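Researcher: We plan to redesign the surface later, but first we want a full-length starting point. C-alpha cells attached.
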C-alpha cells in the first residue's frame, strides 16, 4: 500500500497519526475485525468511525429498515428510506473507505432459528475467516437483544462492549465485558429486569422514546475510543463509563463478575480466569 501522505491517499490521516507518534502501532488497526450489532443512533455512527479509522473488517447486524423518523439521528439520509439499515450502511461505509471489508446480516438476532447463524458468523468473523471476530460492539436498544449477545459471547469467550442511551436521551453508558474477568450482562441485570418490569410496557403506543444525535454521538465516540484502546493496547480501557448530559458528569467503575451468575458459561470462564491468574502469579514468583 502506498503510505505517502497526500490528498488522494485515503490512509493519509492514519499515516499522519502514526507519524505523530501518538499511537505507534496505529496501522495495525487494519488487522482487526469488529462486529457491530444494531445500526441505530449509536451503531451506525460507531461503524462510520471504525471505517474512517481504517478497521480491517466490519460485520454489521440489524433487523430494521431506514425510516424518516430516524433523521433526528446521525448517519442515514432521507433518500435511503425503505432500505434495510444493513444495506444502507454498507453502501455509505464502502464509499467512505473501500479498503474495509464489510459484511452485512439483515437479521433479528433474538429469533431462535437465527441463533446458530449468529454464532457461526461471529465465530468465523476474523479478517481471514479462520477465527472469531476480535470484538463485538453491542449497539442494540433492548434487553432481549443484549442478553442474546451476552449468551453468544459467553459461549465463544468473546470480548464485547455493551452500550446504550437512556429513555430520556440525556445519559448513556459503555461497558466492557470480558467473560470471566468483568461482570457479564447476566451477572448484574439492569434494575428494570431485577424489579420484574416488562420492558415493552414502558414504551407507550404513539409515544416515541426521546432521542438526541448529541448523546448518541457522544456514546458512539466513547465506544469507538475504547475499542481503539482495547485493540491497539494503549491508554486505559474503562470497565464501565457512565455519562450524564445534565451535569456533564462522567463516571467510571469496575464491576466484578457474580459467582452466582445464571449463565453457566460465565461461571465456567470465571473459574478459568482464576486459574489463569493463579498460574501467572506462580510463574512470576518463580522468575
Ligand atoms: P426507535 O426505537 O426510536 O424506533 P431505533 O430502533 O433505530 O429507533 P436505536 O437505539 O437508534 O433505535 O438503535 C437500535 C438498533 O438496534 C436499531 O437499528 C434496531 O433495529 C437494532 N436492533 C434492536 N434489536 C435487534 C435485534 N434483535 N436484532 C437485530 N437488530 C436489532
Ligand atoms: Zn455473568
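Model: Full-length starting sequence:
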Amino acid at each position: 500500500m502506498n503510505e505517502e501522505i497526500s490528498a488522494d491517499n485515503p490512509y493519509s490521516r492514519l499515516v499522519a497519526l502514526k507519524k505523530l507518534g501518538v499511537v505507534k502501532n496505529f496501522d495495525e488497526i487494519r488487522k482487526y475485525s469488529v462486529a457491530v450489532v444494531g445500526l441505530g443512533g449509536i451503531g451506525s455512527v460507531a461503524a462510520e468511525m471504525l471505517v474512517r479509522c481504517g478497521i480491517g473488517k466490519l460485520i454489521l447486524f440489524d433487523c430494521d429498515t431506514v425510516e424518516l423518523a430516524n433523521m433526528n439521528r446521525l448517519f442515514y439520509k432521507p433518500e435511503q428510506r425503505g432500505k434495510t439499515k444493513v444495506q444502507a450502511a454498507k453502501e455509505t461505509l464502502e464509499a467512505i473507505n473501500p479498503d474495509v471489508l464489510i459484511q452485512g446480516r439483515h437479521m433479528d438476532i433474538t429469533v431462535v432459528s437465527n441463533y446458530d447463524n449468529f454464532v457461526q458468523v461471529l465465530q468465523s468473523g476474523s479478517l481471514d475467516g479462520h477465527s472469531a471476530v476480535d470484538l463485538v460492539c453491542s449497539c442494540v436498544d433492548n434487553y432481549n437483544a443484549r442478553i442474546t449477545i451476552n449468551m453468544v459471547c459467553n459461549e465463544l469467550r468473546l470480548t464485547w462492549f455493551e452500550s446504550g442511551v437512556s429513555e430520556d436521551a440525556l445519559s448513556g453508558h459503555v461497558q466492557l465485558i470480558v467473560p470471566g474477568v468483568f461482570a457479564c450482562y447476566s451477572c448484574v441485570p439492569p434494575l428494570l429486569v431485577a424489579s420484574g418490569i416488562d420492558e415493552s410496557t414502558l414504551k407507550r403506543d404513539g409515544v416515541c422514546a426521546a432521542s438526541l444525535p448529541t448523546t448518541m454521538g457522544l456514546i458512539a465516540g466513547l465506544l469507538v475510543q475504547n475499542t481503539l484502546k482495547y485493540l491497539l493496547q494503549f491508554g486505559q480501557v474503562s470497565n464501565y463509563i457512565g455519562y450524564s448530559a445534565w451535569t456533564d458528569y462522567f463516571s467510571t467503575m469496575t464491576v466484578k463478575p457474580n459467582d452466582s451468575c445464571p449463565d453457566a458459561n460465565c461461571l465456567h470462564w470465571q473459574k478459568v480466569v482464576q486459574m489463569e491468574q493463579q498460574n501467572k502469579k506462580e510463574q512470576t514468583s518463580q522468575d
